[in-house]
Structures are given as C-alpha cells and as structure tokens.
C-alpha cells in the first residue's frame, strides 16, 4: 500500500498546518450569526502519520517496550493479550511524538493567534490518553 500523500507532506513540513476558511461575501455562511472564522491548527508531525500498525492473526501478546539508551532496565507494558474469545486476532497500533515537536506546535499556535489577535483554545482528550495528550496540555 502507498503511504498517504497528505501524511507525507505533513511529515516533510514537520510543523503545524492551519486550516482557515475562505470567506466570500457573495456566498452565504452555513451559520449566519458567525462573524469570525474558526481556524484549526493541526499538529503535522508523527502521531498517526509515523505510527506503526499491525494486523494480528492469532493468539499472542502485544507489548510496548521502551529501552533506555543508558542501559538501564527496559520498561515493558502489556498492551493486549489476544487469547480466549479474542484469539482470532485483531489490530494493534503504536505512535509517538517528541517534546520538541509539541513545543514547536504550541509556539506556532500562539504566534498565529497573536498575529490575528484571536483567542487560542487547545482541545485534547487526556481522559483517554493521559500521558500522550497530557504532554500536549503540559507544554501548552
């Protein structure tokens, strides 16, 4: 399968993609009361664009392993054990991001909001991905 062209472009950019609507006076808005555009800033590095996914075809265990460069003991987390009713398999996914990239994303978002004199809101779901989305909240 060919890699996603959008994902390839985002990885090359390695930063933030802003989606701002084009407003034309002659085209009516879907929500007439809105007078200002809503702009979405999307982090364009890693996440699902550089993830590894895997089809599981039978019983077995999926683990996430972090091996420190200093030689200390690896941190091994069991993600899921395909056994019993789920022994026929399924799918697994692993993704990452870097603090440097998240910081760059935050910087771009603040810079964009300040240049437009607009408020900035970060939307995240850190109740599900406590460490992953929590890192975005911590950096912002």
UniProtKB/TrEMBL annotation:
Keyword Zinc (UniProt): no
UniProt keywords, alphabetically: Glyoxylate bypass, Magnesium, Manganese, Metal-binding, Oxidoreductase, Tricarboxylic acid cycle
Keyword Metal-binding: yes
Record-level Gene Ontology MF annotations: isocitrate dehydrogenase (NADP+) activity; metal ion binding
Protein species of origin: Oppiella nova
The Isopropylmalate dehydrogenase-like domain, residue ranges: 7-139
Family that this chain belongs to: Belongs to the isocitrate and isopropylmalate dehydrogenases family.
GO cellular component: a single term: mitochondrion
Any Pfam family hit: Iso_dh
GO terms (BP aspect): glyoxylate cycle; isocitrate metabolic process; NADP+ metabolic process; tricarboxylic acid cycle
Cofactor(s) named in the record: Mg(2+); Mn(2+)
SUPFAM superfamilies: Isocitrate/Isopropylmalate dehydrogenase-like (SSF53659)
InterPro entries: Isocitrate_DH_NADP, IsoPropMal-DH-like_dom
Protein name according to UniProt: Isopropylmalate dehydrogenase-like domain-containing protein
């Amino acid at each position: 399968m060919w890699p996603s062209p959008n994902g390839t472009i985002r990885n090359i950019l390695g930063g933030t993609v802003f989606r701002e609507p084009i407003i034309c006076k002659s085209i009516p808005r879907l929500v007439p009361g809105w007078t200002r555009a809503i702009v979405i800033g999307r982090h364009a590095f890693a996440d699902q664009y550089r993830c590894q996914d895997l089809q599981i075809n039978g019983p077995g265990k999926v683990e996430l392993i972090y091996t420190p460069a200093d030689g200390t003991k690896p941190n091994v987390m069991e993600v899921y054990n395909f056994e019993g009713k789920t022994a026929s398999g399924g799918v697994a996914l692993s993704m990452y991001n870097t603090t440097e990239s998240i910081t760059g994303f935050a910087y771009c978002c603040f810079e964009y909001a300040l240049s437009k004199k607009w408020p900035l809101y970060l939307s995240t779901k850190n109740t599900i991905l406590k460490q992953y989305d929590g890192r975005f909240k911590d950096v912002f």
